[in-house]
């Protein structure tokens, strides 16, 4: 995230941590080069609109521990990282609730051009009342209504990205003075429940046209949306059985949406602390704990569930309350008794993802075991001390995965979508965006002549 404290809170105070440099371009270009050296598929940039002001009903702790505040726009750093890499891709979170579809679609089509097809969009709809107030509204829209708006937003983006320009509309013929063929550029017309638009999209087709689509919806409405639109889904979980059930449910819902069972890549969030040996890794984890802030993790968690956790004592069972925030996270309090002490124990590094600790070989074996037993497609690794955690993974874990034949030894060519699915640069024909693709002019003329 383009900030100091993202998931594992408090570690910005560690002497070796460099995340305070997040506002410097060199911080991002150096990070991109580290990840490309390790053959990472991509760098995922989270983002949020608003501030975590639910805990103690203020932002005091949020500011002291820099819990995603300050945070900067993630999009501007993409071009710089793309310029110093050839293969690393970039997933960017944008909250569509506070965007205009046309301006957003234009910005992301431009980024897909500049990265030569290495762009992904993580689709979010927001969960903070503070964000709504920042844009001049009273409170957050109802959970399901946010997804209704997202459906209309995506439909319009598909029309822009897929429906305005034919693949061969650009001719760039200097002798004939013909840059683009007017017959191959089409006006779009959209009259939706939330958005209306008519006209020609200003950006000619980029390599992927539509960026690779990520989502993390886990509520019933969120999963319906994700399995309809997403190509990649983030999930959480620390128990094999729980992860297995999530994967199975996603696969089943994907098929019900009329898509292939393997149409979506599923990535499990986790944190890795690794070193040359098991004992050194354990020592490093203990060292990290001295700088971590579980309470800052609670402030983050309070915003996620819309409930002030500062009001509870250590041994109080946290009650379930129906809020308008992240439904899937809040449901945990409905399903089991959880105390504040339990939450702090689950946040040893200030973050709520499971932590894998060990030598490179031990971490590799655990990752392989998770992969094989659950049916996931990969991992979304959260940082601890930056850039140390990235360097450690590249140095200790990746060679062990490669020795076991479970990690690539070189990049393949092509766009992010081609690298992930090996089915070309564009969205699969079974994706709902397919219905908005413009047909080649010759094909349209043939159909008109047949009707005549």
UniProtKB/TrEMBL annotation:
Presence of keyword Cell membrane: no
Q: Which InterPro entries match?
A: Diverse_substr_monoxygenases, Luciferase-like_dom, Luciferase-like_sf, NTA_MOA
The entry's FMN-binding residues are: 47, 93, 143, 147, 219
Q: Which UniProt keywords apply?
A: Flavoprotein, FMN, Monooxygenase, Oxidoreductase
Q: Please indicate if the UniProt record lists Oxidoreductase as a keyword.
A: yes
Biased composition range(s): Polar residues? 438-452
Question: Region entry Disordered: which residue ranges?
Answer: 426-452
List the GO molecular function terms.
monooxygenase activity; oxidoreductase activity, acting on paired donors, with incorporation or reduction of molecular oxygen
Q: Where is the Luciferase-like domain?
A: 19-377
Tell me which domain of life the UniProt entry assigns to the organism this sequence originates from: Bacteria
The family line of this record is: Belongs to the NtaA/SnaA/DszA monooxygenase family.
- NCBIfam families this protein is in? FMN_nitrolo (TIGR03860)
The name this protein carries in UniProt is: Monooxygenase
Q: Which organism is it from?
A: Acinetobacter larvae
């Amino acid at each position: 995230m383009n900030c100091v404290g993202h998931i594992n809170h408090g570690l910005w105070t560690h002497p070796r941590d460099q995340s305070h440099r997040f506002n410097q371009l060199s911080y991002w270009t150096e990070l991109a080069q580290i990840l490309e050296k390790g053959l990472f598929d991509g760098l995922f940039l989270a983002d949020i609109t608003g501030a975590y002001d639910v805990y103690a009903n203020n932002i005091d702790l949020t500011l002291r521990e820099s819990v995603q505040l300050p945070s900067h726009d993630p999009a501007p750093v993409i071009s710089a990282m793309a310029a110093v890499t050839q293969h690393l891709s970039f997933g960017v979170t944008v909250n569509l609730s506070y965007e205009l579809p046309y301006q957003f679609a234009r910005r992301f089509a431009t980024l897909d051009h500049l990265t030569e097809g290495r762009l992904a969009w993580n689709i979010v709809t927001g969960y903070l009342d503070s964000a709504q107030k920042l844009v001049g509204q009273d409170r957050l829209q109802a959970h399901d209504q946010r997804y209704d708006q997202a459906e209309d937003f995506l439909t319009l983006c598909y029309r822009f990205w897929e429906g305005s320009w034919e693949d061969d509309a650009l001719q760039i013929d200097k002798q004939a003075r013909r840059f683009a063929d007017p017959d191959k550029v089409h006006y779009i017309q959209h009259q939706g429940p939330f958005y209306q638009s008519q006209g020609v999209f200003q950006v000619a087709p980029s390599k992927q046209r539509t960026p690779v689509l990520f989502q993390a919806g886990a509520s019933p409405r969120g999963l319906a949306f994700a399995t309809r639109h997403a190509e990649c889904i983030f999930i959480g979980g620390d128990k094999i059985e729980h992860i297995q059930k999530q994967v199975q449910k996603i696969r089943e819902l994907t098929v019900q949406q009329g898509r292939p069972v393997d149409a979506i890549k599923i990535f499990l969030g986790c944190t890795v602390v690794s070193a040359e040996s098991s004992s050194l890794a354990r020592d490093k984890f203990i060292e990290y704990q001295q700088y971590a802030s579980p309470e800052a993790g609670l402030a983050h968690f309070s915003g996620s569930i819309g409930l002030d956790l500062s009001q509870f004592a250590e041994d109080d069972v946290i009650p379930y309350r129906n809020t308008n925030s992240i439904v899937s996270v809040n449901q945990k309090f409905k399903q089991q008794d959880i105390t504040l002490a339990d939450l702090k124990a689950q946040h040893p590094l200030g973050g709520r993802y499971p932590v894998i600790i060990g030598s490179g070989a031990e971490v590799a074996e655990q990752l392989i075991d998770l992969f094989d037993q659950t049916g996931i497609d990969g991992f979304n690794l959260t940082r601890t001390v930056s850039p140390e955690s990235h360097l450690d993974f590249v140095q200790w874990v990746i060679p062990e995965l490669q020795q076991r034949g479970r990690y690539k030894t070189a990049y393949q060519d092509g766009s992010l979508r081609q690298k992930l699915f090996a089915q070309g640069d564009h969205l699969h024909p079974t994706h709902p965006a397919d219905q908005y693709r413009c047909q080649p002019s010759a094909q349209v003329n043939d159909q008109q002549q047949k009707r005549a």
